[in-house]
Design goal:
The protein contains 7 helices and 13 strands. The protein is α/β, with parallel strands linked by helices. It has 2 domains: about 80 residues, Immunoglobulin-like, CATH 2.60.40; about 180 residues, von Willebrand factor, type A domain (Rossmann fold), CATH 3.40.50.410.
Length: about 300
Amino acid sequence: MLFTTSVRPILRASHLAAAGLVLAVAASGAPHAAAQATEHHVYVSVLDQQGNPVTEVTPADLKVTEDGVTREVLRVGPATTPMEVVLLVDNSAATSADTMFFRDALEAFVAGLDDRHAIALVTLGDRPTLELGATTNTEAIRKAIGRLFPRPGSGTYLLDAVRDTTKGFTKRKPARPVIVAVLREDVEFSTGDHVSILTDLHETFAAFHAVVLNTPADPSIGTNEWRERAQLIDRGTIETGGRRVNLISNLGLKDAMVALATELNAQVEAVFARPASLVPPRRTTVSSAREGWTARGTLARPLSGQVQ
């Protein structure tokens, strides 16, 4: 099993309108907002020294900081909110030798993920194509996976697919959105920019994971499209608390997807206190306070009426 992962912080986009409001309040001499703390939630993956998920986690095991300021972790428990997982699967011409490996890996992921979570399937070859809407029907998901074939002469449209997926999240507002991209490193044909797509990820509170099968001597390296995709994969997984897995062989796909499903099943939900403020923090970072453990977190969508 050949893959690597790294620790991920969460970034939040700044709110210029709110900042302007703060300046207006200061200029008018109006009193500051009362420093009454509100509770916020974060979904956290905690791994031990061997990279195995840890489920017995206490508030003392985690550290939450926002813009460099430590927040009090109030409680930690199992993450019970169902996920909506959108699988973005590469079926471009570059994957013609990988089809069976992709199918086996995706089926293993579905089998390993708790069946209370909904899964959708989107292919990336030629253009982003919704193959199956979000469902908990595992049989329907397996059938959709079984219909995966590479599109001859096609390239990959990862950025467009992530952008379209976040648009769907914006409309549906799932409580726990997750994107998992499974692709080979090859030519990218999307024309979007990673910065705007990262903003969409933050605003929809989506976790972004990527399992990337490296291609030797990638012909697209150096192009603007390749750089935009590289930035999205790198920053997207870092800033949303996701996991990036780099593979050197398609033989590692199944193990990598099983490990990701196991990690998602074992996530915990931490609740921390945030003092009231007219300007929400830009960066919320989750890390482990216990030596030898690592932690990554995805900020949860605020409850209705709650200030972000």
